[in-house]
Design goal:
The chain is α+β, with helices and mostly antiparallel strands. About 45% of the residues lie in helices and about 15% in strands.
Length: about 290
């Protein structure tokens, strides 16, 4: 039977489950545009569309790559800027009780909240590579929520905690750029470069010229830091892009070069080896519904 992610957004300030819920919204026609507030934390990961949001009497335009945090009782309303442009976003709502539970574990989960309250800045614009990192973590969470594998409940919790903690780390590093720069390593720089150039041909020789170090040193970095070869690392990262497109119901059959593969047969073999099923089988089982 085909498994599909079905998420109905409840705007009435109530969580249908105790801790948190994740929604994929691709149609605002059923969303109440009236001014409102609610009794939970709302995180929005904006994917596409032309909309604005008024928060506490201040208007903000949303663009792809924006992450929005609305604390409880924050007065806001959403407006279409162009209803002809397709809208898409992920929304996560978290109960006050569960967010409090996270803060009891460590205040690191609450950095973005403290920043938002202190600065009244509800909107964070991320570069494409960083936003893609968060999007991939959301896909991991979605995929796990729609399986019946052993340990599902605990794994969903682990993925959710990882997503929120990563978001807090990103916001912290945005606020402390000098500290982030001091902590950068060659391994980090290599990972960022690869993330931004996955569609291109990447080799040890190219990276050696790019970073002015020997290719043997780079090879050791991948084995010591990532526990894989450069080729294995590239394949995994490219397959993550393929998986994200499949979950978004995109046709990838003629887009293999967009993912850094030379032909579809190479993509097909690599995907089946990694995920144990063909791209079409994976899409049929896990694709997000577009008719919400």
């Amino acid at each position: 039977m085909k498994k599909q992610i079905h998420m109905d957004f409840d705007q009435n300030g109530m969580l249908q489950e105790k801790n948190f819920e994740l929604f994929y919204i691709n149609n605002l026609s059923g969303i109440d545009m009236k001014t409102r507030s609610h009794d939970f934390y709302e995180f929005t990961f904006f994917l596409n569309g032309k909309v604005s949001i008024c928060i506490e009497n201040t208007e903000y335009s949303l663009f792809p790559g924006h992450v929005l945090l609305l604390p409880p009782r924050t007065v806001h309303h959403v407006s279409y800027m162009d209803s002809d442009t397709p809208y898409a976003s992920f929304i996560i709502i978290v109960s006050k009780e569960y967010f409090g539970h996270l803060l009891e574990r460590t205040n690191d989960y609450g950095y973005i909240l403290s920043q938002t309250i202190r600065t009244k800045n509800y909107l964070y614009h991320l570069d494409p590579a960083t936003f893609k990192l968060l999007q991939n973590k959301i896909f991991h969470l979605l995929e796990e929520q729609n399986t019946e594998r052993f340990g599902k409940s605990e794994q969903v919790t682990v993925y959710f905690h990882d997503l929120i903690l990563t978001l807090n780390r990103i916001v912290y590093e945005l606020a402390h750029p000098k500290e982030k720069e001091a902590e950068r390593t060659l391994a980090h720089d290599l990972a960022i470069y690869i993330e931004q150039n996955l569609k291109e041909e990447i080799s040890l020789d190219l990276l050696a010229k790019q970073f002015f170090v020997s290719k043997y040193h780079i090879s050791h970095i991948f084995k010591d830091t990532f526990c894989v070869t450069l080729h294995q690392y590239l394949t995994k990262k490219r397959l993550e892009l393929v998986r994200a497109s499949l979950l978004g119901n995109e046709d990838i059959s003629n887009k293999y070069m967009d993912y850094g593969f030379k032909d579809y047969s190479g993509l097909f073999r690599a995907f089946k080896k990694e995920y144990g099923m063909s791209p079409k089988e994976y899409q049929k089982q896990y694709a997000i519904r577009r008719d919400l």
